[in-house]
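Work Package 3 (structural annotation) set out to generate three-dimensional models for the target panel prioritized at the project kickoff. During this period the team completed the workflow that converts sequence records into discrete structure tokens, so that structures can be stored uniformly alongside our sequence database. As a representative example, we reproduce one entry of 187 residues exactly as it appears in the project archive.
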Amino acid sequence: MFIKQKVFHQINESYQLLHKAQNIKAEVWMESILFTPQWWVGVGLTIIPWLIWFKLHHRQKRYRLLFVGFYVSMISSFLDFLGVQLGLWRYYYDVFPWLPAYVPWDWTLIPVLVMSLIEIRPQVSPIKKAVIFALLATAFEPIFSFFHFYKAINWAIIYSIPIYIVIYLTSHKLSRVSGFQHISQHD
């Protein structure tokens, strides 16, 4: 079944509006955000936690933890993207204006915190660590809001807690998966 011409027109119009909005956002970012102290904080929050993690983590566990960190980044970026698109929250001092999610949060703070909690005291219950992670992560939301990096529109901090718990528990489970099989030509 083919889409009617009217639907094509409406979809094209919506893409034009998105393109126009993105151009406005990029222009504002270039003129008013780039190289501000808040932008530099975002850059620092994107780089420094990774440098600390690379210095302190157990090298034997590096690739397994990075695999988990990649998973966390993808999940948190997707959920953040969804929240921005649905008008649940917004960000004001993006490191990059072309991404709807906040890079320091999704690509650094959340994954580094999860990887660190998985690595530190592995005998502690994952449920306890999930709750600790959720409380730590939600504690940062009001701080980011206070400094105008983030504004909740149709979102309450309490909604984040179960999401953070699920992210941690699935990450913990993923970190326990035994080695992957090799890919061969004959599979």
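The first helix runs from residue 5 to 33.
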